[in-house]
Fold these 2 entries.
Entry 1:
Amino acid sequence: MRAAQAKRELERRTPRSRAIACERAEILNSGLAANLEMPHPILIERGEGAYVYDADGNRYLDTSVGFGLHILGHRHPDIEAAIKARTELGWMFGIHTTVQMKLASMLHEASPCAERVVFCNTGSEATMYAIRAARAVSGRERIALFDGCYHGAHDYGMWVTDPNSPVAAPGKLPMGHGIPGAIEELVTLLPYRHPAAFDLIRAQADELALVLVEGVQSSNPQPGAGEFLAELAEVCRTSGVLFGIDEVITGFRLAYGGAQERFGVVPDLATYGKVLGGGLPVGAVTGRADVMEVFTGLAAKRGIFSGGTFSGNPLTMEAGAAMLSHLREHPEIYGRLDAAGDRLAAAVNGFCEANRIPAQMKHAGSMFHMFFQREPIDCMRDAKPGREAAEKAFYLHALNRGVLIPGTQRAFLSTAHGDAEVASLIRVFQDSLADVQEEGLFH
Ligand SMILES: Cc1ncc(COP(=O)(O)O)c(C=O)c1O
């Protein structure tokens, strides 16, 4: 089938989504910033397990699972029960509540670096606070981030690599307009999984407040990320620079103890979001007690401001505690998620090789990402532009076959994706790739 035909079929099946999407554009301006970008407008009405249902009643096998946070699938009964029970008691007070300690203790126990814990509301807030804390503790202002990493929407993280700059010394470009030029002076971009990153850290050691890295890059998930992480931690330690792992995605996904547990690397600070909140908005910073002390108030030594209307709100705390309780009681989940990810990637990559299709799936456990090239991809600098039409057509075909793959390409499996769902994904990925190949879109 050609992509145009898949589009027509989708249009025929989604009239209500289409009408709402048109009406919505007049009032609600939210692009990728608020919701997943899809190859065709669909508006979701409900979710159940591994599936979501759109406004026209069509069912899709979901590989976004709420930007990765529903690791147990949509509407897990334990989480739903916890949310319902909380609604009978009131769900927002703005004053400390008894339930905060439940989730704080679990996070304290789970996160290897967590001598102390602070809650906020999103992953973006968590990384913003980690940066502020590191600046306060070190008395330095420059931070170092990696090429291809994402740490949230605040100005400090809105830098992408200038593709024309040398690999060993990435130049920066702002991600869109509105990012103050002055911030650029405070950010060093480092090449990911490249030894030049270590040289840059050593050279700038006296200026750097923090080196922050994702546990595994969600833009480029690779199971071998741990070796680099361990070396990076050591370089930061010997250079006297604080080291932070952003576990917003990897926390409670790669392992119960996140990338720290999986790779045996303990940073000074770690940031959390997503799975931690059981499906409700959450962020958290964990870390060494002497660093985290800055969060105890402005009167503390080098104290910083942190706070927020919804930080530690009881509804999120209950949902998060229900999520973590389930994960803690079922450690076998992680082996199953990894096996499902391995099976999917092996089948898709084997199919691409056998049929000489220039595409590949990168994955680490249950996180995966499709790339449309044959050349190896160790870091995002290796990802080549030029096959956008093939990529778009692939997502369109998959959606038309009832599989939702986020246009941000960061895709995930959940425990609700059983053997049958993984088999469906394999079939749909293979058929959709074959369609794109047949139409001649892989130039
Ligand atoms: C690694 C990482 N850090 C931070 C964030 C920002 O989290 P949020 O969208 O909750 O602000 C994200 C979001 O996807 C992320 O993937």
Entry 2:
Amino acid sequence: MPVEIDVAIIGAGVIGLATAHEIAQGEKVVFVFEKSRTFGLETSSRNSEVIHAGIYYPEDSLKAKLCIEGKNLLYRLCDRHNIAYKKSGKIIVAADENEINWLEELYKQGKKNSVEDLMLLPRTELKKLEPNIEARAGLLSPSSGILDSYSLLKFLYSQARGKGAEFVFNTEVIGIERAGTKYKIQIKDRDGISALIAHVVVNCAGLNSDRIAQLAGIDIAKSGYKLHYCKGEYFSLNSKYKNLVSRLIYPAPEQAGHGIHWRQALDGRVLLGPSAHYVKEINYAVDETHKQAFYDSVKQFLPLVDIEDLAPESAGIRPKLQGPGDDFRDFIITHEEKAGFPGLINLIGIESPGLTASLAIARYVSKIMS
Ligand SMILES: Cc1cc2nc3c(=O)[nH]c(=O)nc-3n(C[C@H](O)[C@H](O)[C@H](O)COP(=O)(O)OP(=O)(O)OC[C@H]3O[C@@H](n4cnc5c(N)ncnc54)[C@H](O)[C@@H]3O)c2cc1C
């Protein structure tokens, strides 16, 4: 007889960890299956570590609501448990008249989303805050910040374990089959293939989450669950640029990302990125020939930068539901009861602001699970 558990979480990125931390308690048997050797080796450690305010997304979208709730939960958790962060604030800059109009729209969108502390800055005010930045105007978001994401992951992992969640690393979920009101989960590890039974399955498999849904029997083309990979590269800047700017600086966003921004990580590294281009496969190499595009982008708001001071750094891949040229797509976080799969929770397209929203997403999952 296969082992029987209450909840199987697939994936130990920030979403799987936060979910395990939220739901593991008492007698409930919660297992987290992770194909890698440890937690957080994919998108959760390949991002900008920015705590987003919740400005860009349409009101009432899950992205807006869970970002704002998640931001507040995250700041509180970091304060309570000494997880490093800096509420540095962020300025989105406008290079020309068109972008000033767009900043005003963004300001209104932020207000609709209940981000109450935004401030439009004319050039003179912007210069007072950031003398090295060149722009026609800016939008200041004081509640944006930067996080030590590894400390968050480690905290969630140890707390979830402390509450009884079992982490099964080097173990890939390769099959999910209905077994009456439960699910038979097939796993592959070093010893071969085996199976267990779970009452509830939570799909937090990031870049693989559409395939996991398909394994469970969901028609992902019909449901609109098919993911598109969108790569974001980072370049670092020479340490002489340290402390030149004190806030996060963002340009106008692109179709698929928030634009190549300036960030000083908590360890002092100065980073530019991420870019955004759709790719067919997962490959984290940074293409050095993209240096010129990074330089052109940052030079617009920071003319002091010299191209020789840029070096390739790292890359991440966004699990996007929105394909090239498509309109906005929200997170999919759904209990698949109506599709005939009670007990199956799918989380698909958890791109930015997934890190910021992680604690709120976990609460949401816990609510729709019961
Ligand atoms: C370039 C970039 C910049 C970003 N910047 C920000 C930011 O500044 N702020 C912000 O809030 N968000 C940001 N994000 C988004 C954020 O990083 C993600 O939303 C978040 O990390 C998603 O976490 P996850 O747990 O869903 O995915 P992941 O971290 O990818 O975890 C999924 C896990 O599932 C495992 N898995 C997959 N398939 C299987 C299987 N079959 N069996 C077992 N395990 C499996 C994987 O190995 C992986 O560990 C950014 C993303 C990118 C790509």
